[in-house]
Recover the amino acids of this structure.
């Protein structure tokens, strides 16, 4: 069987087209893998730490809210014990989210800043725990005075 010039040209073109298609498929697959990796890295190093910091902040706000509700004079709403429990639970949740954030691969400056935030947060939690203990003991005036200090610390934090 003798191949004509036209058949040789069409055959060569088909081989080149096949190779081009194979290279395009490999390239598209690698590009998709690269995009998935980049998206995962972006989420892991940008969005996830932000989520941890925001959750920490939300639980801090909840703990503060419940502390203030527990401070109401004369336990007007009759739910002081429940508010004290909720405030303690919110502080524990804030600690948990803060530790998750601290476990991330933070840059040196981020680590220094977050360590400062954690120390301040521990001080706030210690003072808030004393406020809640005073409330449980029925020492409302002392609790109210210390709570004002906690509020100031939170404003700085």
């Amino acid at each position: 069987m003798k191949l004509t010039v036209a058949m040789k040209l069409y055959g060569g073109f088909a081989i080149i087209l096949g190779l081009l298609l194979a290279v395009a498929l490999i390239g598209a697959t690698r590009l998709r893998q690269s995009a998935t990796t980049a998206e995962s890295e972006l989420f892991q190093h940008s969005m996830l730490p932000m989520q941890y910091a925001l959750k920490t902040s939300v639980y801090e706000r909840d703990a503060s809210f419940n502390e203030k509700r527990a401070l109401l004079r004369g336990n007007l709403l009759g739910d002081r014990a429940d508010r004290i429990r909720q405030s303690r639970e919110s502080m524990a949740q804030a600690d948990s989210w803060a530790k998750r954030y601290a476990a991330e691969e933070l840059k040196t400056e981020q680590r220094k800043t977050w360590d400062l935030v954690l120390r301040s947060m521990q001080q706030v939690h210690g003072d808030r725990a004393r406020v809640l203990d005073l409330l449980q003991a029925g020492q409302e005036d002392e609790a109210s005075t210390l709570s004002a200090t906690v509020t100031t610390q939170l404003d700085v934090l």
Summary: The mean pLDDT is 83. The first helix runs from residue 5 to 70.
